[in-house]
Design goal:
This protein is an alpha/beta fold. The chain has a single domain (2-163), classed as Rossmann fold, CATH 3.40.50. It contains five helices and seven strands, in the order βαβαββααβββα. α1 (10-23) crosses α2 and α1 packs across α5. The protein is globular, with a radius of gyration of 15 Å. The two termini are 25 Å apart.
Length: 168
Amino acid sequence: MSNAIITTSVEQTLAWGRLLGALALPGACIALDGILGVGKTQLVRGMAVGSQVQDCALVCSPTYCLLNIYQADASRPGAKTLYHLDAYRVRDADQFAAVGFEELLEQQGLVVLEWASRVPNLLPEDHLAIVGTVEAEFSRRWCIRAGGPVSHRLLETAAADWSRISAV
């Protein structure tokens, strides 16, 4: 299954991310791609809000450290930890072994990988792949592909909810 979502502002990109973060089941994997400045990290900021992590204001790109972990707010039912990775500076997939990428996929959080196309063999079969492109100054097209039954349900639900939300 595939779909495309258009966001026309930073606020809408954050809202789309918030929806994905809220709907993603624990253990889900989301792979992000797109040029520098397309809004991948903004999308992850929204996912952090939707996942109900402790301090969403701290979300930033893990380009230099490879991994940022944002802990779930234990006081909120349904909150999940967000594991935010970035493969922009990765030379090969072995670098991700050092941060325990495969182990992260076994956790009950949300794993989000920016620049995922640089390490495609590491991704689980069932993941949501999102590629952002610039349409205009603040407008972005997010092309989304589901790679398995869990990500298919996530995409189906998120796209339907987004249609209702963005129509208002």
